[in-house]
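Re: the request from the purification team.
They wanted to know what the chain is likely to look like in 3D before they choose a buffer screen. I agreed to run a prediction and write the result into the notebook, where they can find it.
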Amino acid sequence: MIDEELQQWFDHTDMLVTELLEDGTNEEVYHTIEHHFASSDFDLLEKSAIAAFKLGLEIEEPEEAELENGDKVFAFDIVTEQMLDVTVIKKETQEMFELAKKCGVDYDGWGTYFEE
């Protein structure tokens, strides 16, 4: 059985890919996919970034952000290049979700950019 939160990210994937294609993004080119990770604990986030790096994943520099309620959160992205193939992106999403769970940080979905 699929974790309820993971299923929500799968639904997000279906919706986002559909919207991008309807808007006319070029489905014949690779898209930069940014998987978002966050934690209020910088040390924990840093350890998860190191774990991802050791797996050979491309990580962006951690950043600090302020939430609407004023709390601080730390975040980083893992970046991949993928075709807009729902099956491939869902598999990657599941891997990222499981990595976040294993490391004790939050997986905050993925995003990409419109490609001409």
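For the purification team: The longest helix spans residues 4-22.
Please add any questions underneath this entry.
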